[in-house]
């Protein structure tokens, strides 16, 4: 196996471990949001520890292992921010008009239009 093939296999292995563990711990095992976040953080720490140990034993794989781990961690943080921290709901009053089907036809007598400024009973 060539050096490039070993590096690609190492990077793919790190990515596969992160994805498989992330799915298992975050979607299958965890009962709620915060437990899923805690388990995913723990899983990333475990994979980071193992990646560091392996890259010390095999220096030629250091860039592939750590680069893949770093790219996956940054991507996971960005997706976590975009899907849970960032607000996507606007809580502002929305002014709406009457539906066109309820609009007064052109040329209708003025008496059919309610005077909102008139004194109310």
TrEMBL record:
Region (Disordered): 96-121
Keyword Transmembrane: yes
Highest taxon of the lineage: Bacteria
Keywords of the record: Membrane, Transmembrane, Transmembrane helix
Entry's transmembrane regions: 7-26, 32-51, 63-82
Full protein name: Uncharacterized protein
Source organism: uncultured Solirubrobacteraceae bacterium
């Amino acid at each position: 196996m060539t050096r490039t093939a070993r590096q690609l296999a190492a990077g793919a292995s790190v990515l596969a471990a992160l994805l498989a563990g992330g799915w298992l711990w975050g979607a299958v095992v965890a009962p709620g949001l915060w437990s899923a976040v805690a388990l995913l953080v723990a899983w990333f720490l475990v994979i980071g520890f193992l990646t560091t140990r392996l890259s010390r034993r095999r220096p030629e794989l250091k860039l592939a292992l750590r680069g893949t781990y770093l790219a996956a961690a940054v991507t996971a943080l960005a997706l976590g921010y975009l899907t849970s921290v960032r607000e996507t709901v606007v809580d502002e009053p929305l002014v709406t008009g009457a539906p066109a089907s309820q609009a007064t036809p052109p040329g209708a007598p003025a008496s059919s239009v309610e005077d909102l400024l008139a004194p109310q009973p």
